[in-house]
Structures are given as C-alpha cells and as structure tokens.
Amino acid sequence: MGALLEVSGVSVSFDGFKAINNLSFSIDTGELRAVIGPNGAGKTTFMDIVTGKTRPDSGKVEWGRPGRDLLRLSESQIARLGIGRKFQRPTVFVTQTVQDNLLMALKKDRDPLSALFYRADAVDLGKVEELAVEIGLQEHLPRLAGELSHGQKQWLEIGMLLAQDPQLLLVDEPAAGMTPAEREHTTDLLKRAAQTRAVVVVEHDMEFVRRLGCKVTVLHEGAVLAEGSLDAVTSNQDVIDVYLGR
Ligand code: ADP
C-alpha cells in the first residue's frame, strides 16, 4: 500500500542539466512536511512535477491507494484530484470582499465578473464562514481583500485553496515578509490544515521550520540529501557542508 503521494526515482533534465536526480519522496494524510535546500536544489521543479507542470524524464509519481499514475494526467486533472498549490505571492481579488473571494474559490470560479451575478445560498455561506474560522479571518469577511495586511492576504489565499478541498497542499515560503505575530498564526494554520490533509511547505527560514516542528526533507542537487527532524538534519555533516558551501 502506498502513501497519499508517492514519488519514486524521478529525474528531469533541462538542456542536459539534471535539475531532479533520482528523487523519491512520500507523504500521507495528516502529515506536515518542510522541504528545505539551498537555491537551485530543485524545490520548485519538484513541486512543478507533482502538480503536472513539468513532466519528468523517468520515475513514477503516484497518488492514493491503489496508486494512480499522475504522469498520465494533465495539470488541471491533477488539481481536480485534490492537489492545491500556493505560490509565494498572494493572488487574491483585491477589489472583492474576503467573503466573495472565498465564495469564488468555493465555486471553483476565479472570475470575479461571473461571481457578481452569483447568488450564494445558505450552504455556501456556512462553508465560507467555516473557512474564515479556519484561516482566522471571520472578523474580516465584509472587508475588501485589498485592505488586508500581507499576512491576512496569504491566509485568505490558503483559505481559497482549502475551499477546493485539497488532500495535498503545496505551499511556497508562506511566512516570507510576515510579522512575528503573523508567522505564529501561519504556523497554527498550517498545522491545523495538516490534521486532515497532507501539507508540504517549501521554506528557507529555519526559524519558521523550527516552529512548524515537523519532519524535514533536505534537497540538494535534485535529490534528497537528508530526512528527519530539524535537529537531526541540521546536525547531519552532509547538510552542514552543503549549507556552508563546502
Ligand atoms: P530551487 O527552487 O530549489 O531554488 P529549482 O527547482 O528552481 O530550485 O531549480 C533547480 C535547478 O534547475 C536550478 O539549477 C535551475 O537553474 C534549473 N532549472 C529549473 N527550471 C529550469 C528550466 N525551465 N530550464 C533550465 N533550467 C532550469
């Protein structure tokens, strides 16, 4: 029986350069995982492979039990299966309210124009309220998203992804540019989100990774260099050498 996501022996080259080199990775529901590694380690390419944006030259990417071959599916089919990705910069509709942003996401309709003509029913509004509570923005539902702080916009975007009911969430540097209080809220939010889903956080900030308190996968030159608790991987000599550039 495989995990929720099982990546086995995946490689991809760009113009002869091996960006991902025989990478294996797996994660299950209920798990929060931090993926770290120096610039160029392959973190973005790894997420591109999982979401179907980049096709590997070899290896397997399987989803669920029994394992379904993700390499046969398009990017949008993969998204519909339940893999959500959050890029670093928040992309919320700044001229719409928090409530309407969440409603649009719930309807899988990211077009603000058609949302103007959409009448939400009580079930939708209940779900929006639930999402707002989960991301800690219940007090801000009537506000324009453009009035939110940077951190609040990031939480709103996470809420918009959760609205689509993902089983796996890939999040790129969620704490970048946040205040200490916002970072704490983000930690809680991600931990909570991972209770019923799998969440992968790509992160540079070690202090934030420490707060997450989860298993860490260290990538280097497109492969897994070390995996384990933050303390275990940061005392691993190979990891120390890579981070000190030896
Ligand atoms: P990270 O996100 O860890 O910084 P990336 O996945 O962005 O690393 O990149 C891994 C390596 O692959 C880098 O050396 C990068 O220059 C190279 N790379 C990534 N995408 C492309 C591409 N489309 N064409 C050529 N090289 C690429």
Can you give a write-up of this model?
- The chain has 246 residues and is α/β, with parallel strands linked by helices.
- The chain has a single domain (5-244), classed as P-loop containing nucleotide triphosphate hydrolases (Rossmann fold, 3-Layer(aba) Sandwich), CATH 3.40.50.300.
- The chain contains ten helices and ten strands.
- The protein has helices at residues 43-50, 75-82, 98-106, 112-116, 122-135, 150-163, 180-193, 206-212, 230-234, 237-243, and strands at 5-14, 17-27, 32-36, 58-63, 68-69, 83-86, 168-172, 198-202, 215-220, 223-228.
- The strands form two sheets. It has a six-stranded mixed sheet, sandwiched between helices. It has a four-stranded antiparallel sheet with strand order 2-1-4-5, with helices on one face.
- Strand 9 and strand 10 (223-228) form a beta hairpin.
- It is globular.
- It starts with a strand and ends with a helix.
- The relative contact order is 0.18.
- Bound molecules: adenosine-5'-diphosphate.
- Adenosine-5'-diphosphate is lined by residues 14-15, 17, 19, 37, 39-45.
